[in-house]
Amino acid sequence: MPPGPKPLGERAMTLAERQARYRVAHAADTAATVKLCYRRPADRRSSHAAVRRKHSRMASKLPLSVCGSPQQSSTFSIIF
Q1: Largest CB tally within 10 Å, which of 2, 27, 35, 62?
Q2: Cβ atoms within 10 Å, residue 75
Q3: In a domain, 51, yes or no
Q4: 38 φ/ψ angles, rounded to the nearest 5 degrees
């Protein structure tokens, strides 16, 4: 690996000096380029309505022996 650049002064900069120099050099750039982008939340209402329609069609196709059972009523009470 090749050696890094020569120091600007008589000695190499400390980490604090290097950090301060970096912040001063990049302070103007970051102030102008900060941009916040918010993502719109997904509209889940339409998918929920579609699921309810699908399950109501399924409920209408169940045989009569299952329609009055406690298992069927508990399942569809969770869905609807």
Answers
A1: 62
A2: 13
A3: yes
A4: -105, 140
Altogether, the residues listed in the chain come to a count of 80
Structure tokens at 14: 């400390």
Q: Is residue 58 part of a domain?
A: yes
SS3 letters for 27-46? HHHHHHHCCCCCCCCCCCHH
Interatomic CA distance for residues 28 and 44, integer angstroms:
42
What's the number of domains the chain is made of? 1
23 falls within a domain: no
Locate 67 and state its tokens: 């329609």
- At 66, give phi and psi (nearest 5°): -95, -25
Structure tokens at 46: 């339409």
Cα separation of 41 and 44, whole Å? 9
Tens digits of residue pLDDT in 14-65 = 899 989 988 888 876 655 666 777 888 777 666 777 877 887 787 777 777 7
